[in-house]
Amino acid sequence: MAAHEKMPDFDVIIIGAGISGINFAYRMQERNPELTYCILDGRHEIGGTWSLFQYPGIRSDSDLYTFSFAWRPWTGKDCIVHGSIIRQYLEDSAAQEGIDKKIRFRHKVNKLSWSSSPSMWDCDITVNDTEKMSLRSRFIFLGTGYYDYEEPLPADIPGIHKFQGKVVHPQFWPDDLDYADKRVVVIGSGATAITLLPSLATSAAHVTMLQRSPTYIASLPTRGVFEAIVLKILPSSMANRVIRLKWMLFSLFMVSMCHRFPRLAKSFFLRETAKILPPGMSLEPDFVPSYNPWDQRLCLCPNGDFYAAIRSGKASIHTGIIETITASSITLASGKELHPDIIMTATGLKLRLAGGIAITVDGEPYNLSDNFTWRTAMVEGLPNLVLSIGYTNASWTLGTDSTAHLACRLLNRMRKRGLSVIMPRMTAEERKELEERPFLALSATYVKEGGNVFPKTASTAPWQPRSYYWRDLAIARWGRYQERHGVVEIGLVTDLSR
After folding, report:
1. Which of 91, 182, 264, 314 is a good FRET partner for 252, with 20 to 30 A between their CA atoms?
2. What pLDDT is attached to residue 107?
């Protein structure tokens, strides 16, 4: 191979122009300014999830004070906002830092191929759905999340194909859908269903949320007294830091309490729910989950809009098992029938890691799910690649930021020591000693059905799943690399900055 063919197009290629990708680009500009990079995204605009999802009421499922970037604090008055506002915030953040000029839209990465000689990644790309091209880089950052943007989670609903009305999956919301004065049944009880119900109820004849089992739905004020006071008495920059810290501590406290004292937490949530139900409505059977809080992700409804829709009589909730669906009805195992005009299958999202990109290492197919993840960021035997995964029990952004700090530190280490390759690996004996743990500690159906797409995690460091932000951040910034189960560094020739 000629010398000029071995040169990379970029030092780093970031895949994904959502929260993870934009945040990593900022951290790299901040900590590794000598490196060249670009961002590749298959969509037409910034935003990732917030560009894809367009169903009514789509909004953040965690507070914006911690969901926003640490380097560009959220200054809006509401802590939960519509998805379009989040997407605009991401676009403005990227423009502020010049990151938008590094993005190549409609560049879908199909395959990543690592070659040990000359220690680089080749990216096979489709541009505008037609043109084929390739780019080469020394390092890959995957900010692709873990949802399948192209296919929904198949809903195993008996007889759904017989229904003569409209069947809609919220992930692919039709622009021309008219649900005004229609009877709508939303099948599901997760965040999507809980978001849809109050939004649809404003113009639909009636909306019924049909669930197999209840979930915890907590009402959260969008504007807090604490925030108002802090913003009034402190300079804005200091106030933003204080408010962000408050929400980080609040999240950690709530999750910890739920895990340590599940009975107490369950009693608290059910008591709060009872206070905002319509008069005379019982908690059973529609509002008492069979699991403990945070065994599945806690759902939020801003200012209690979910319960307000039920109190208005425009919406209702029903718990039961679907026996079958006919051309015009839903028959439940209890014998009850529903007669919707539109059925919406909010039954979860299909999981897919790395955006479905095929990966090979020296010509051999590489399967992420067969290997253990190091610090929830790199995967054993996979060179020069960082995978960004956020938290399930806190804001996604916090997890991606700790990963970005770790990746930038690795890049600096490679540059300073003249390393061409850095990757985690272990011996066969060490691997036998590991006790596997779930990658995501959630019992939701979509996680159970799709959890095999994730890399393995273990009970011992550094192969453990995520814990909490401050611990992960401390490890990312100051943790040791070379340890019994640590990163193995190889290649002492190439300077990454060249």
Report:
1. 91
2. 98
